[in-house]
Amino acid sequence: RRIKQQKMEATTLRKRPLSVKTAAGREGRTAAEAELGEPVSPSARLVEDFYIIVLMGASTPLNLPALRAGIEAQLARYPHFRSIQVTDRDGELRWLPTTVNVDNHLIRPTLDPAAVAANPDKAVEDYVASLSTLPMDRSQPLWEFHLFDFPTSEATSTAAIRVHHSLGDGMSLLTLLMACTRSAADPTRLPAMPPLPTRTGAIYQRPRPSAGVLAFLAWVWSFVVLAWHTVVDVVGFFATILFLKDPHTLFKRVNHAETQRKRIVHRRLSLDDVKFVKNAMKCTVNDVLIGVTYAALSRYHFRKSGETDTHKEIRVRSMLLVNLRPTTSLHACVDMIKSGKESHVEWGNELGFIILPFFIGMHSDPLDYVRKGKKVVDRKKSSLEVVFTHVAAEVIFKVFGLKVTFWSFISQC
């Protein structure tokens, strides 16, 4: 999850780690004498105010020595996880390698025993919500493990992992997570990877010469459709930045400059149920999850607003971050790590944006939400909007700077 950094509202006590001393000193100090690494990329600067927070539960009690040893052996050896951000002589942010003290990144919060005994799930949820208002210590690498060694309704022990978004996007962090795990059958080996997905779009299905002229024309027409959809989406993107607004609903922020506490609320889903719907509807897991989101937002809207006209459909939009790495990158990166070539893996952020419409309405058939979600996702797949927005963000950043880029793309969220 991505949570915007805000002002501190310390509602929960916790043990704060000591700062890590480095040759370059504290954040903001010019590192002229230090051997600096690569510059912080424009994509990483664009998500400067975002964290990724992941909750992971275990069926066993917390084993702190084993966790520390695993992090030292795996996680802390990757470049951005053992670097801090410093400013060079020209005022540019760069990655500076530093020595990692893993104990400084393992945080065991001090929670109210009465609150934990009364409702451990809410105690964890309240603490994770407080992370949205607590800044990270910039004098050390920007990642933390917050450990809860008490049972909840879903796990025996829980870890809240908070990572600054500049360290990487979802695909690179997923690659890192896979590389840090081991097969249950053979702890010396990495887990088996799922088979590579096959591309089924029309533009990937070039017909053979024996298929005839009509098949070839249909293939060429798919490129025309792709170009047309891209033009429409690009025009809509600029219109959204300049003047096009969504109707005011419960989901639209009134004041973007206002700092607000963020809360992660989750609900468990059975992956078997999701796959069952996927197979029945002949769609993808993402299509099903989009449909579930449509249904959840619709029910929430009508329940909280008190509107009685359930036949009315409201169209709102969300700006969605999309990974630009090819689907083969996860397999390729894990193979590199297996062979000891983790330095060749491209970490960081490779992201674009799409404007994803959400339709708020009540349907008598729950599968209508999935059908509508599939239609929207299929339409977005037939467009290069995400590539355009990625390039546009970097151009705007280089020409106008970080603040203009950030508000251009985020003001409509």
From TrEMBL:
Residues 347-405 form the O-acyltransferase WSD1 C-terminal domain. GO terms for molecular function: diacylglycerol O-acyltransferase activity; long-chain-alcohol O-fatty-acyltransferase activity. Signal peptide: none annotated. It is found in: Cell membrane; Endoplasmic reticulum membrane. The chain crosses the membrane at residues 213-244. Residues 1-36 are annotated as: Disordered. Gene3D superfamilies: Chloramphenicol acetyltransferase-like domain. Pathway: Glycerolipid metabolism; triacylglycerol biosynthesis; Lipid metabolism. It catalyses: a long chain fatty alcohol + a fatty acyl-CoA = a long-chain alcohol wax ester + CoA; an acyl-CoA + a 1,2-diacyl-sn-glycerol = a triacyl-sn-glycerol + CoA. SUPFAM superfamilies: CoA-dependent acyltransferases. Keywords: Acyltransferase, Endoplasmic reticulum, Membrane, Transferase, Transmembrane, Transmembrane helix. InterPro entries: CAT-like_dom_sf (IPR023213), O-acyltransferase_WSD1-like (IPR045034), O-acyltransferase_WSD1_C (IPR009721), O-acyltransferase_WSD1_N (IPR004255). Residues 63-288 form the O-acyltransferase WSD1-like N-terminal domain. GO terms for biological process: triglyceride biosynthetic process. It is a single-pass membrane protein. The keyword Acyltransferase applies. Its main location: membrane. GO terms for cellular component: endoplasmic reticulum membrane; plasma membrane. The keyword Oxidoreductase does not apply. In the N-terminal section; belongs to the long-chain O-acyltransferase family. This is Uncharacterized protein. The lineage of its organism: Eukaryota, Viridiplantae, Streptophyta, Embryophyta, Tracheophyta.
